[in-house]
Specification:
The chain is an alpha/beta fold. It has a single domain, classed as Rossmann fold. The protein has 8 helices and 7 strands; from the N terminus they run ααβαβαβαβαβαβαβ. The chain is globular. Keywords: Methyltransferase, S-adenosyl-L-methionine, Transferase, tRNA processing.
Length: 228
């Protein structure tokens, strides 16, 4: 069993009160959309989705949902599992999934570690972690999600040759992630030139966190690692 950090990798879960409609959607629709971890995972994760899909993608901490929802809309044959503990962000995603009748999205509103430990080995074709909480104070670095134990979890769940994609605008977290992935035997950085990690991936829709970073004078970096 992979060691678990005793504590959360995320901060507060609630912000402004939800509108009555979103309160209703969270109560009525989130249970239907939630990945049920109470039993073992199905042998084929494709059975989780209403859509006919051919690959599985995980996004840990989808924030405002801009990236998750864009990918789900433009890649209807990909099944997306989106994880986000912040209630306001989850309510926004639930509303979009219901309103747009997206059948290729499943959600989870708690610690991503729970899902990673539940997933079958070699079941993911792609994983994203975009602009995660950087926990900038040194004494809080142990809360950063990227660490040896969680990279073990990603490595177990990803298929060999699959990609793990990470974005951040915080230099110390970029360096932290590069160092941890460099030292991990199951991942290799795919960058061949200096520009490879300075440009977002094809079809990138942007996110509100990226917009905030740009407004505040920070630059996003986009790291791609291959599961070997």
């Amino acid at each position: 069993m992979t060691e678990r950090y005793e504590g959360s990798f995320f901060g507060r879960r609630k912000g402004k009160p939800l509108s009555p409609r979103r309160e209703d959607l969270m109560a009525r629709e989130l249970p239907r959309l939630t990945v049920d971890l109470t039993g073992p995972a199905p042998e084929d994760l494709k059975s989780l989705f209403e859509a006919d899909i051919d690959r599985i993608c995980l996004e840990v901490g989808f924030g405002g949902g801009e990236h998750l929802l864009h990918r789900a809309r433009t890649e209807p044959q990909t099944g997306f599992i989106g994880i986000e503990p912040f209630v306001g962000s989850m309510a926004k995603a639930v509303a979009a999934v219901v309103d747009e009748k997206l059948k290729n999205v499943k959600l989870y509103d708690d610690d991503a570690v729970n899902v990673l430990d539940w997933l079958p080995p070699a079941s993911l074709d792609l994983a994203y972690q975009l602009y995660p909480d950087p926990w900038p104070k040194v004494r809080h670095w142990k809360r950063r999600f990227i660490n040896e134990q969680n990279l073990n979890r990603y490595a177990r769940a990803l298929k060999r040759g699959a990609e793990f994609r990470f974005a951040s605008d915080i230099d110390t977290y970029i360096d932290w992630t590069l160092r941890h992935c460099r030292d991990h035997p199951k991942f290799e950085w795919t960058a061949a030139t200096s520009s490879d990690w300075k440009q977002p991936w094809q079809g990138w829709p942007g996110t509100r966190y990226e917009d905030k970073a740009i407004r505040e004078g920070r630059v996003g970096r986009y790291l791609t690692f291959r599961r070997i």
